[in-house]
Amino acid sequence: MTATESKPRPRLPDWLRLPLPTTDTFTRTRSLLDNLKLHTVCESARCPNHWECWSKGTATFMIAGDRCTRACGFCAVTTAKPFALEVDEPARVAEATRRMRLKHIVITAVARDDLADGGADHFRRTVEAVRALSPKTVIEVLVPDFNDRDAAIETVLAANPDIFNHNLETVRRLTPSVRSRATYDRSLSVLRKVKACRRDSIYTKSGLMLGLGETEDEVLTALRDLRQVGCDILTLGQYLQPTLRHLPVIAFVSPETFAKLGERAWKMGFAHVASGPLVRSSYHADKFPHASQAG
Ligand code: SF4
Q1: Is the pTM of this model over 0.90?
Q2: Which residues contact 124 (CB under 8 A, 6 or more apart)?
Q3: Which of 26, 32, 224, 278 sees the fewest Cβ atoms within 10 Å?
């Protein structure tokens, strides 16, 4: 992998240049989310696929506010003192899911280290509200590490989500400089605990961003570590610098390298692998065929 130092931001390679489709569905998604006063990670994290997903009528809901108690070097979400949880937010997410007729929903949240349970009960209530209104919808939770607290993890699992997603984000060596108040082993521990208590009734999922200076061997080691804790689903995507205040892109990893790493991951036994420059944790999340058979 070659490295390119970049200030100002490097020119995007062709494979990362996207047409920005704005369809009627995009506009409908926009107004529905505004009407229901819902946050999305699509906007807060400046996801490059936001246009495509909303134009297809999908979105990743971000509950517990848009202010995070952490400040990861790659993330565009605002770091600030969070507001109180909105008690009716679970019902609003459920209503949006029903109106958007989502077959697969991803519910994520900022880190709420200010809350005793890290926001776990708010996740439980949101999953249960969605399940009540849309019993056939596959529910994926993309959660912070809850400081690896058993009670918080069990609270989320009590709502029986189909997929429990927690991102490793990067390789072990880079974790301290890339992630805030998180550790590589704590994230593995969260995934291990979920599999330990719900082996056959839930899929676990995790993802890494590439292009932050990691080596291919370090990525392969991280994939083996994820398989070691029973992780079923993997996403690998290109890191993109949200603003000049965030970590620089060290390398634009080629589509060929993503394909090669994806092949290696399939051979390691992941049940599903999405590996490509534009892949994000919840991008095309509904493409995982078996999700509806969990739980
Ligand atoms: S924990 Fe890190 S990645 Fe997650 S929302 Fe907060 S700053 Fe972003």
Answers
A1: yes
A2: 155, 156, 158, 159
A3: 224
